Amino acid sequence: MPLPERPGRRPLVSTDHPVEQITQCTPAHLREQLAQMLGALPGVQLRPSFVCVPGTLGAHLSPALAHAPAGAFLSATEFGHLHPPYDGSLHLALPQALASEVIRNGWGVPAAPSGSVLVYGPRDEQEAAVARGLLLASYRYACAWEPPVDDAGEPGPIMSAT
C-alpha cells in the first residue's frame, strides 16, 4: 500500500541544526500516543536522544536486536526520536525507497544523517496512523526485518500499526 499524499500545506521547518518543526505542531495527546507506542516496541528503551535537543525521546534499540547496517540508525542504536512537546515531529532512519516516498508525498524533509528524514508531526488521528506506520517501518528497518509481502509478492502495508 503506497504512502498517501499528506493533505494541506507543509509546515515550516528550521534549516539550522537541529532541524525542528516550527508550525502545525502536534497536539499533546497525539505526541503522547507516539511516545507510548515507541516505548512499547520490544527491545526499545526511551532515553534522551544522542543527537538532538533536550526533551527529545530517543528510541534506543537493544544491541541484541540491532541487526541492521549503520544506515538504519541515527546514532549508535538510536533508530529514531520524537521531538519535544513544543514540536512533536519525528526524526527517523528509513529504507531509501520509503524515505524518498515520505519526502515526495509531503510527509517530511531530508535530514542528517543522510537517508534519514524529519517526519512532520501529526495534526490529527489520520496523520497519527501514518506516523505510527512510519515508526514501525523504522523499527523493522533497525531490526533488519524484511517487510511482509502479500500473495502477489508485493510489499505489505506499512500502516499496520494502529
TrEMBL record:
Residues 77-138 form the Luciferase domain. Pfam families: Luciferase. This is Luciferase domain-containing protein.
